[in-house]
Amino acid sequence: MRMVFRWYGEGNDRIPLSHVKQIPGVEGIVWALHDVEAGEEWPMEKILKVKEQADRYRLHIEVVESVNVHEDIKLGLPTRDRYIENYKRTIEKLAQVGVKVICYNFMPVFDWTRTDLYKPLEDGSTALFYEKEKAETMSPEDLVDKIAGNSDFTMPGWEAARLKHLSDLFQAYKNVSEEDLWNHLQYFLEEIIPVAEENDIKMAIHPDDPPWSIFGLPRIITNKENIRRLLNLVDSPSNTVTLCSGSLGANPNNNIAEMVNEFADRIPFAHIRNVKIYENGDFIETSHRTADGSVDIYRIVKAYHDNGFTGYARPDHGRHIFDEECRPGYGLYDRALGIMYLWGIWDALERAKQEEEK
Ligand SMILES: O=C(O)[C@@H](O)[C@@H](O)[C@H](O)[C@H](O)CO
Ligand SMILES: [Fe+2]
Fold it and tell me: Using a 6 Å CB cutoff, which residues line ligand 1?
């Protein structure tokens, strides 16, 4: 397991790389150009700037999260081809600076969706919260106001540019079924996977968060059967998945450890975090400890260890603790605590294996 830490870039992240470097076992950053709109080709000078910053702390930049997919590609519009060509050029440029994994998602309009960014937990910390009834009754506009308007920080997938023409987007998706979205994803992958393969890059799709339709929009990367279907769309070692235990774990029917066992060789990148699911279908993000949530983090890390996982892992989100002012879900302290929990499990399993082999 190769531990990495998401960093939003100089001037866009309060957490300095000097602090990231001090988290035990963190080898690299998970980065992106957050000021380049989805669909545009990434400028090499901006890519090199991130590399230079990371090089100063001897942190690698092998994992990008995300090169976002333009809505026209998800909608299957004729204009998608221009954006796909830009995507290919970006893949080629990222390969030149040593990138090995590109994370992306194929969620229409919204990325992760929550109804509250700072829901108090009983320990006095706060966390990202999803209230099912509210999510099913709120208008998309209200949700954007509540979420995007409620944070001084840019949030992945909540970029204003993406959400600027919300009603046009909803109109455009009116006649897009799940099967249509599958076809558009297949078209996209058939175009970019050969380029990724030539450049020794894994394209690792991130599952839908939450793993079900919101606002009537189609969502397709939601469970084991759909991940199996995704991997078969283009049978290539470059067509892979970012297995996110927190996103998929919001549905109690998703057994993440089973998915690790089934898809191990097609998971180059693991997001390992916990959520607590309530009876009524609400969920809240918790500490990484198995005991604090509904996801069996121990069993998931054990499944990665049993499969000899040598990919990248990150703690994904954390709670907001110690009064830290941070990007929602992306504080330093609880993600660092989460990393130490994941190392604790991994190192104990490693030691037990070595003892057994003596
Ligand atoms: O929840 C998060 O912050 C991330 O795991 C996702 O936003 C993820 O970065 C994107 O969906 C991947 O494209
Ligand atoms: Fe994730």
Answer: 65-66, 103-105, 111-112, 156-157, 206, 209, 244, 271, 316, 329
